[in-house]
Description:
6-stranded antiparallel beta sheet, single chain, 5 helices
Amino acid sequence: MRTLTPPATRARVLLPDGSAKTVVDITRNDDGQIVLHIEGGSAYRADRCERVDTSRITDARRAARRAAGEIQAGGDISQAADELGDALRYLAQADPDTFEELTAGAPRVTIEVPRLGVIPGDILHHHGARLTVLDTAVSPIDAPQWWADVLGVTAEDRQATYRAPWRTGISVDYAAWDMVTVERAVPAFPA
């Protein structure tokens, strides 16, 4: 393989399994196909990946701020929690640094959402344990399937499930209406 010029910006791409990762290098293989080298050491043909739209980061940050304010004000928070989830899901894909800035150490609210509404950073109540959602996506391979990489929050949660990160998944048709309980970070924005 010969190395091409690495991307000037660390481009975010959707991989074939639906997850979003950062490209760290680009090469061309012996067959002339462009290969994207992804954070963590994996590589994928470029024609099997899709670039993540990063044009809405500012809008998503504003939407997260507005929704977080509505949740903090109290009352019926279901719509605001959905809007916050949409904004944070987008930021987790498009700009993980902003996502981490907004959610790290943020207070949480416990809500019920369809399984498809679970986002990275949520704490999912599942199998009698509390599981930190590390990543989630819908895999378009074969029959569409919702999946989440999870890890028990405490040693007891890991003992009740698995000690290392693991993947749970179900059909998208089922995930669309299967309601689950999550604890979602609610970013605190300066006034």
